[in-house]
């Protein structure tokens, strides 16, 4: 008998049972009286996982990581990025962070503005477009 833990088959059966337990009430209306197909179960599971992965949006940590990466890349401090400085290297770092936060994490322009201490979301819109234009020029 293997004492290293459950077998792969047992693990898969347990996960499948858990998935059916989660989605069966949603996918099987009582009036239809039918069991969901494996395709339906898989589709609902994937949708559930996408929602779970995107729950990080309420957490500022991934965005702060992007801000730190952009600051390091452009040799500026995070305080300079969040400040009012308009030197080219500061502006470019700020705009790159705006673009990446929007594209990678899906934050709204007002949320990004608040993170970077900008007074208006239209500043973020301009920064996003400017960085996108620079990327397309390369």
What's the gist of this structure?
With 138 residues, this protein is an all-alpha fold. The chain has 7 helices and no strands.
List the helices and strands and how they pair.
Layout: H1 8-27, H2 38-53, H3 61-73, H4 78-82, H5 88-105, H6 109-115, H7 121-137
Helix pairs in contact: 1-2, 3-5, 5-7, 6-7
Features:
single chain; 138 residues; mainly alpha; Chromosomal Replication Initiator Protein Dnaa, Chain: A; elongated
Describe what you observe in this structure.
Helix 3 packs antiparallel against helix 5 (88-105), helix 5 (88-105) crosses helix 7 and helix 6 (109-115) crosses helix 7 (121-137). The protein starts with 7 loop residues before the first helix and ends with a helix. It has helices at 8-27, 38-53, 61-73, 78-82, 88-105, 109-115, 121-137. The protein has two domains: 8-58; 61-137, Orthogonal Bundle (Chromosomal Replication Initiator Protein Dnaa, Chain: A). By secondary structure, the chain is mainly α. The protein has seven helices and no strands. The longest helix has 20 residues, at 8-27.
Query: Could you say what the CATH architecture of the largest domain is?
Result: Orthogonal Bundle
What is the domain total for the residues? 2
Question: What is the CATH top level name of the largest domain?
Answer: Mainly Alpha
Separation of termini? Answer: 60 Å
Number of strands: 0
**Percentage of helical residues?**
55-70%
Helix segment tally:
7
- Radius of gyration (Å): 23 Å
Q: What about the largest sheet?
A: none
Main structural class: mainly alpha
Percentage of β-strand residues: under 5%
Q: Which superfamily, in CATH terms, is the homologous superfamily of the largest domain?
A: DnaA protein, C-terminal DNA-binding domain
Mean pLDDT: 80
């Amino acid at each position: 008998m293997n004492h290293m833990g459950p077998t792969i088959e047992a693990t898969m059966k347990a996960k499948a049972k858990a998935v059916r337990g989660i989605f069966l009430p949603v996918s099987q209306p009582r009036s239809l009286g039918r069991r969901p197909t494996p395709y339906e179960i898989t589709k609902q599971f994937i949708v559930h996982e996408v929602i779970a992965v995107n729950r990080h949006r309420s957490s500022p940590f991934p965005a702060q990581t992007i801000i730190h990466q952009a600051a390091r890349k452009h040799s500026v401090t995070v305080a300079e990025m969040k400040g009012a400085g308009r030197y080219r290297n500061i502006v470019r770092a700020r705009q790159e962070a705006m673009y990446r936060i929007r594209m990678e994490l899906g934050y709204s322009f007002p949320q990004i503005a608040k993170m970077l201490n900008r007074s208006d979301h239209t500043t973020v819109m301009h920064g996003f477009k400017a960085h996108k234009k620079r990327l397309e020029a390369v």
